[in-house]
């Protein structure tokens, strides 16, 4: 095995990487070349499985079975040129050459015999299985005070044999995360680590440890867990990092891959444990709090739909198109007997533009013939979270009412827990879940079926009843019992023997949702059958290729969902009478004068203008010119960095309470991060002299690190001054950030989020008359 890898490395160094970049160090280029080559091998092997499926269905069964017996190691040994590996037109030729060598009895086969002209599939494969160099700047929120090793948990790797799993784990992993990075880790003793929390959390951790990100691994599937190749310049070690993980189930699933995957019989285990940064319970608490604040600030949604968010967005867009093709429901359009005429008549019969959901291509074609079509965006609010997205849409019912629906994308396992709790605790009482599930072989289910189970097990084995379905009752299969796992890797032969007689379908989220939403929330789960557990030809590993089979059932269900709730059409031009507060009025006045300024800079100007009693445009313009512009990233970086200084004080002793009593600019939101921040802090009920003596070493460290940017003064205890103080102790984290988010942002109805690239964004949610709100997005 070592010999093979040495030959591979020598070959790569000889031919040079096609993607070598000048900005990378020589060693980074070598590491990236190794990874890129293995990714290309992984992609070719994944393609060969698809080719084998095709041949199996086209009277080439023996050849298909032989191709399936070609291992990735067989492909790597051939040391194919990188140009050929990255040229889809060469793939069949490469596979055929290995087939001839490994199985001489197939030497009679020609390229014509294994021809497969699925160019779309090949093109999509070329979009993944890549390693893109990336340079992440050190997080400005990290200072010398909090540099150093970051705490992590050691997690053991489960004893799991890939051969005992019912699905083709190799093919499944290849599509979802790639196998190549695990092969590389196995061959070079790289460690693989896992990061719970946001992208920003990950970047702050590696900044604290002064590590570097070399490249991002791009997968075949849309993977919300970004994967990076990381380098430690002190130890000279490389590692792989899975980031943006929001639940423990996802951690378990990803860790299991280290034991399942082998390359030349070697697994990617540098040690018998892996490093897991962050804590799932803390991530859930933070996410629940953030979502609860958002859901309470937004109006209560009349309906919440979890799952299939992209498909729903397409359906809503299509309904909007149909409403322009046939603006008057009573006057069908189009020539007699044409497809659009039939759809037009159905709209008239049902009173809903959503009644043509399954005929999107026809509607789109007719829409594009219009002279002045208006493509509309119907999302009036959207929020990007680490593991999911949320968006709101206003819909008009057939009786003229305006209703608000909230759509949330699919998640993995226990990632739904904080979402369910936030929905329940914000008063939402109607939730529909549309997920995917595996049918148990022998239970009369096939890929493409839609089921509404009558019972679900929870993760701890409790059996809970589910609400009777009200949508798609003419085609949805009902009455099943649903089992729960944390990962498809749980579905082993032993698991199957235990659960086969008890359940009909299996997935990861419904038990969590039912348990956490409780009995007072109307909750209906609908599951699209994506695979049949225990079946060779309808396994989860080939689900991507069979996605078309699920589409029809999905669209029929969505059509029923909208029609049975009396929905006529989406609304894109809904306006309401504004009833803004003084803060909001001033903010929008400043926004009119300087729309290019960042939202945080405009908010700071708003606070200053109100306190100075400014009203005219001339006065406001003079203030704007006087105050330096800044952006949210600078503000949040400074607040996080200065919070680190305060934490240095608070962590010295437990049980001591601190109070920020001076620093009026911070307390009232008028501080400009391009200026120094002056804070007065009380320590317990002690005098300034005693506190300064006790914390002298920490104060000197803060001064040496922050310089004049942060000016701390310890002051005498004064009970009167604590009324409006900011309190913190040894358990507090990011105290200045928490104050800004909780007190300053909320004055304008802003909520903060960390986007999928680790950036800070704010969403404005403005209350209006009539008990409803209208939202704008501040990017």
TrEMBL record:
What does UniProt give as the signal peptide span? 1-22
Q: Write the record's keywords in alphabetical order, separated by commas.
A: Signal
**Keyword hit for Signal:** yes
Q: Which SUPFAM superfamilies match?
A: Purine and uridine phosphorylases
One molecular function GO term is: catalytic activity
Superkingdom of the organism of origin:
Bacteria
InterPro entries in the record, alphabetically?
Answer: Nucleoside_phosphorylase_sf
List, in alphabetical order, the GO biological process terms annotated in this UniProt record. nucleoside metabolic process
Kindly provide the name given to this protein in its UniProt entry: Nucleoside phosphorylase domain-containing protein
**Organism whose genome encodes this protein:** Bdellovibrio bacteriovorus
Read off the lineage from the record.
Bacteria, Pseudomonadati, Bdellovibrionota, Bdellovibrionia, Bdellovibrionales
């Amino acid at each position: 095995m070592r010999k093979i890898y040495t030959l591979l490395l020598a070959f790569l160094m000889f031919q040079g990487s096609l993607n070598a970049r000048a900005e990378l160090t020589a060693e980074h280029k070598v590491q990236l070349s190794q990874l890129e080559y293995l990714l290309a091998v992984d992609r070719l092997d994944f393609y060969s499985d698809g080719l084998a499926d095709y041949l199996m269905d086209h009277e080439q069964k023996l050849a298909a079975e032989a191709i399936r017996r070609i291992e990735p190691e067989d492909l790597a040994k051939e040391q194919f040129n990188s140009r050929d590996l990255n040229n889809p037109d060469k793939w069949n030729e490469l596979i055929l050459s290995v087939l001839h060598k490994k199985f001489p009895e197939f030497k009679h086969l020609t390229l014509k015999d294994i021809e497969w002209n699925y160019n779309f599939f090949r093109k999509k494969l070329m979009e993944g299985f890549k390693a893109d160099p990336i340079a992440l700047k050190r997080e400005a929120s990290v200072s010398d005070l909090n540099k150093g090793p970051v705490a992590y948990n050691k997690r053991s790797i489960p004893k799991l044999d890939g051969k005992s799993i019912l699905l083709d784990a190799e093919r499944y992993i290849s599509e979802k995360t790639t196998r190549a990075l695990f092969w590389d880790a196995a061959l070079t003793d790289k460690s693989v680590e896992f990061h719970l929390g946001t992208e920003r959390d990950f970047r702050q951790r590696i900044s604290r440890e002064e590590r570097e990100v070399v490249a991002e691994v791009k997968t075949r599937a849309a993977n919300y867990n970004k994967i990076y190749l990381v380098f430690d310049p002190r130890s000279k070690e490389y590692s792989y990092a899975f980031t943006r993980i929001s639940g423990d189930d996802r951690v378990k699933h990803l860790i299991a891959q280290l034991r399942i995957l082998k390359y030349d019989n070697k697994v990617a285990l540098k040690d018998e444990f892996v490093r897991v940064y962050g804590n799932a319970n803390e991530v859930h608490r933070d996410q629940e709090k953030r979502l609860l604040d958002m859901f309470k600030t937004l109006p209560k949604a009349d309906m919440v739909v979890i799952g299939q968010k992209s498909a729903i967005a397409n359906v809503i867009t299509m309904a909007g198109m149909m409403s322009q093709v046939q603006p008057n429901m009573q006057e069908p359009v189009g020539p007699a007997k044409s497809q659009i005429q039939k759809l037009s008549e159905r709209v008239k019969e049902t009173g809903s533009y959503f009644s043509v959901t399954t005929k999107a291509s026809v509607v789109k074609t007719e829409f594009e013939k219009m002279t002045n079509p208006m493509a509309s965006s119907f999302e009036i609010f959207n929020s990007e979270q680490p593991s999911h997205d949320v968006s709101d849409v206003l819909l008009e019912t057939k009786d003229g009412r305006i209703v608000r629906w909230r759509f949330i994308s699919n998640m993995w396992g226990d990632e739904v827990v904080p979402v369910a709790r936030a929905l329940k605790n914000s008063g939402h009482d109607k939730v529909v879940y549309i997920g995917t599930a595996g049918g148990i072989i022998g239970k009369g289910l096939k890929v493409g079926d839609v089921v509404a189970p009558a019972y679900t097990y929870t993760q701890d084995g409790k059996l809970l009843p589910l609400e009777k379905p009200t949508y798609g009752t003419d085609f949805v299969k009902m009455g099943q019992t649903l089992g729960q796992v944390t990962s498809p890797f749980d579905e082993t032969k032993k698991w199957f023997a235990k659960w086969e007689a008890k359940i009909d379908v299996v997935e990861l989220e419904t038990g969590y949702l039912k348990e956490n939403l409780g009995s007072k929330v109307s909750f209906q789960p609908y599951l699209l059958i994506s695979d049949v557990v225990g079946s060779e030809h309808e396994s989860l590993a080939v689900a991507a290729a069979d996605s078309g089979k699920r589409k029809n059932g999905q669209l029929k269900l969505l059509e029923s969902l909208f029609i049975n709730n009396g929905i006529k059409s989406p609304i894109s031009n809904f306006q309401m009478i504004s009833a803004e507060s003084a803060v909001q009025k001033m903010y929008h006045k400043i926004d009119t004068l300087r729309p290019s300024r960042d939202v945080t800079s405009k908010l700071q100007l708003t606070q200053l203008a109100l306190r100075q009693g400014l009203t005219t445009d001339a006065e406001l313009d003079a203030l704007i010119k006087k105050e330096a512009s800044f952006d949210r990233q600078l503000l949040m970086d400074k607040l996080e960095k200065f919070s680190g200084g305060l934490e240095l004080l608070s962590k010295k002793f437990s049980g001591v309470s601190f109070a920020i009593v001076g620093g009026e600019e911070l307390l009232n939101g008028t501080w400009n991060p391009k200026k120094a921040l002056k804070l007065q802090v009380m320590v317990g009920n002690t005098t300034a002299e005693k506190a300064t003596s006790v914390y002298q070493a920490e104060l000197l460290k803060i001064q040496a690190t922050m310089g004049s940017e942060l000016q701390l003064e310890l002051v005498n205890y004064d009970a009167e001054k604590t009324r409006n103080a900011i309190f913190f102790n040894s358990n507090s984290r990011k105290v200045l950030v928490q104050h800004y988010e909780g007190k300053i942002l909320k004055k304008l109805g802003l909520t903060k989020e960390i986007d999928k690239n680790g950036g800070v964004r704010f969403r404005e949610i403005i209350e209006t008359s009539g008990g409803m709100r209208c939202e704008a997005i501040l990017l």
